[in-house]
Design a protein that fits this description.
By secondary structure, the protein is α+β, with helices and mostly antiparallel strands. Among the domains are: about 30-80, no CATH class; about 110-175 and about 185-265, 2-Layer Sandwich (Alpha-Beta Plaits), CATH 3.30.70.360. The protein is built from eleven helices and twelve strands. The chain has helices at about 5-15, 20-30, 40-55, 125-130, 135-145, 165-170, 195-200, 245-255, 280-290, 310-315, 340-360, and strands at about 60-65, 75-80, 100-105, 105, 110-115, 125, 205-210, 220, 225-235, 260-265, 270-275, 295-300. The strands form five sheets. It has a four-stranded antiparallel sheet with strand order 7-9-5-10, with helices on one face. Strand 1 and strand 2 (about 75-80) form a beta hairpin. Helix 1 packs antiparallel against helix 11 (about 340-360) and helix 9 (about 280-290) crosses helix 11. The two termini are about 15 Å apart.
């Protein structure tokens, strides 16, 4: 039987010989733009021609599940060595986040629009200023009733539930940010919380887009309409089904009945979090430390959002994510990239982890 060290050495030899680079070169050549409906055939080819042969070579049976309502097909592969052994479910997609780290869940995301429509057209500000309500002024004040000038959420229904002690303990040694990135605004967001608690364990309400009239070519007219697109990132303990009603009730109570609240067409992602004290967290962290010689950073959840609720809530599985990139990778940009040293280390980490999972079952 191959030893753990030999398995990792073999994986690194494959990396050093250019094996990973060549494999990635073939796969990134597929134009897998999931936001474009005309790329469905290309996405299917990426799965069927790019990934499936590699899975089949390892003894996996695979199939494509294609729902016309989804942006891309799913590839599901299965290999059963013995039904009595531990089952491990792996999931992946094209997004990347900061490495080498463990994260145990993600914040949810609820996007919505606020719109004020008062009349059909704009009217001269000299003739009508002071006589006509301004939708931009109304909308600005409506937003200010939700989140204050320091980024603190004002509406109680959208605020953060108490942070569990195990989560606060896990975040105590975490410092967000990266070299070359923007400086963190220490006095922004929820008072009394560390930067790590604010981004990984707190709700945040952001204005993503705001408009009225034409800021590039303003004219002396009171606009007829104002609109904003907002996003609430939220942690476990919040029920997104009640967000719209809570916003409506709050705006009505504060005199903003004319402000429309419309949930965005994009699906709401629910928040998830595996307790840092869960036994599987310790098992995975111990394996990574055994490979790298250093304990991994453990984040109870990332600031972004993922469909992790499919696994954590629907299937009831403990979920642990092991990212293989870093914050400056420029994800979703034309110059998105992967650093070779991080990819090499990730390959060693995952080889060691799979070995340890099999070894623990055998023991």
């Amino acid at each position: 039987m191959i030893t753990r060290g030999a398995a990792i050495a073999r994986a690194l030899e494959w990396f050093d010989s250019g094996g990973l680079r060549d494999t990635l070169a073939r796969r990134v050549a597929y134009r897998t733009e999931s936001q474009r409906p005309d790329r469905r055939a290309e996405l299917a080819a990426y799965l069927e021609d790019g990934l499936a042969p590699a899975l089949a070579a390892m003894g996996f049976a695979w199939r494509l599940v294609d729902d016309e309502g989804s942006p891309a097909p799913f590839l599901i592969a299965e290999r059963i060595e013995d039904p009595a052994l531990t089952t491990v479910l792996s999931y992946g997609h094209g997004d990347v986040v900061g490495g080498p780290t463990l994260f145990l869940g993600s914040r949810g995301a609820f996007n919505f629009d606020l719109t004020v429509r008062l009349r059909d057209g704009a009217h001269h500000s000299g003739n009508w200023g002071g006589l006509l309500a301004n939708p931009a002024t109304i909308l600005a004040n409506a937003i200010a009733s939700l989140v204050d000038a320091r980024g603190r959420i004002v509406i109680d229904a959208l605020r953060t539930p108490p942070i569990p002690a195990s989560v606060a303990e896990a975040l105590a040694a975490i410092e967000p940010g990266e070299a070359g990135g923007p400086a963190i605004d220490r006095d922004w967001g929820e008072p009394g919380r560390s930067p790590a608690e604010r981004v990984f364990a707190s709700n945040v309400l952001e204005v993503l887009a705001l408009g009225s009239g034409d800021p590039e070519r303003p004219v002396n007219a009171i606009p007829a309409r104002a609109a904003a697109h907002l996003q609430l990132r939220f942690v476990p303990g919040c029920e997104p089904e009640g967000f719209t009603a809570a916003l409506r009730a709050h705006l009505d109570a504060h005199g903003f009945a004319c402000v429309e609240v419309t949930p965005a067409k994009s699906a709401t992602m629910r928040a998830t979090r595996l307790d840092p004290a869960h036994p599987w967290v310790g098992r995975v962290a111990k394996s990574i430390e055994r490979t790298t010689g250093a304990p991994p950073a453990i984040l109870p959840g990332i600031g972004g959002s993922l469909p992790n609720d499919c696994f954590a809530d629907v299937l009831g599985l403990p979920t642990i994510w092991i990212p293989h990139s870093y914050p400056g990778c420029m994800q979703h940009a034309p110059d998105e990239h992967l650093l070779a040293p991080i990819a090499r280390e990730a390959l060693a980490i995952m080889t060691g982890l799979w070995y340890d999972l099999g070894e623990s079952v055998a023991a």
